[in-house]
Predict the structure.
Amino acid sequence: MKILLTGKPGIGKTTVVKKVAQALKDNVIGFWTEDFRDKHGKRLGFKVITTEGKEAILASKLFFDAPFKVGSYGVDIKAFEDVVIPVLEKALKENKIVVIDEIGKMELFSEKFLSLVKEIFNKKDKILATVPIKNIHPFVKELKERKDVLLIEVSLSNRNQLPEKIIQLLKN
């Protein structure tokens, strides 16, 4: 079962992914993204965290000279690749559910990431990934249109029930 979660920014896609990953612990491999904030609650950027506990800053408002930018955030592709590429390469070899949060603008600056995600979607049976609601990249559109993918839009009304439903789908 290949499940793609989509929805508006901040609706709870990552929360759903984390709840599923925590429930299935040793049976998942991959990563999720989280924002980080200053002491006043203002968002400063985003970090990636692997299921193995490794972290890197993906994007920050403090990366002024970064060659890749999304809005006011500079994107550190090298740091992202150093943490995420090894776990995705490992995911190809292991019989686990692959978690990819998210396949978005920042992450898709990485050609290595794009190539690995394509390979994972072609070779693995159990995937839980998130994509933006808008087709920000041809690959996002392609994933959403795959016949072997269940596309679920996360909303305020379904986000609390989704983790349990997804766990059941991935277990069967």
User: Anything to note?
Assistant: The longest strand covers residues 28-37. Helices lie at 13-24, 77-93, 111-123, 138-145, 162-171. Residues 77-93 form the longest helix (17 residues). The CA atoms of residues 68 and 126 lie 31 Å apart.
